[in-house]
Write a structure and sequence with these properties.
The structure is a single chain. Helix content is 78%, strand content 0%. The chain has 8 helices and no strands. The chain has 139 residues and is mainly alpha-helical. Bound molecules: zinc ion (ZN). Zinc ion binds next to helix 7.
């Protein structure tokens, strides 16, 4: 068990190991309470010391949805579980990476906007015109 050192546990937490190495560490974690303790200590240490953007990004990227999933979230075509999860990820965890990604996706979807704006404008003008007419006839 001493074969697994801090650097490897650290890489494990960063999801930076190969499948084989990850399996090996998970196996070792199952078998060794001291190793589990080391892992918990490492996680706590990281949580305390993690004030750098890079560190937070690394930690939270582990649970990030893909760009495609974010796109589907915007279109609201995901299962409600996924929709909730991504909402939680964006709003409660406040993942800066995904928020940036989402903003980018929203910008890409913008071209549809002027059309809708024009429709609203027309609707507004016709309602305003109607109101003016109504007011005029009341005189
Ligand atoms: Zn994220």
């Amino acid at each position: 068990m001493s074969a697994i050192n801090r650097e490897q546990l650290s890489a494990y937490l960063d999801d930076a190991l190969s499948d084989g190495e990850t399996a090996q560490i998970e196996q070792a974690l199952r078998e060794s309470e001291p190793l589990r303790r080391s892992l918990r200590a490492l996680i706590q240490e990281r949580d305390r010391g993690e004030h750098s953007i890079g560190a937070i990004w690394r930690r939270e990227r582990l649970s990030c949805p893909s760009r495609e999933q974010l796109g589907n979230y915007l279109l609201q075509v995901l299962d409600s579980d996924w929709q909730d999860y991504i909402e939680f990820h964006l709003k409660t965890i406040g993942c800066a990476y995904c928020q940036a990604n989402l903003a980018d996706l929203q910008a890409l979807q913008k071209p549809a906007e002027p059309q809708a704006q024009k429709r609203r404008q027309r609707f507004y003008e016709s309602s305003a015109g109607y109101l003016n007419v109504a007011r005029d006839t009341r005189k």
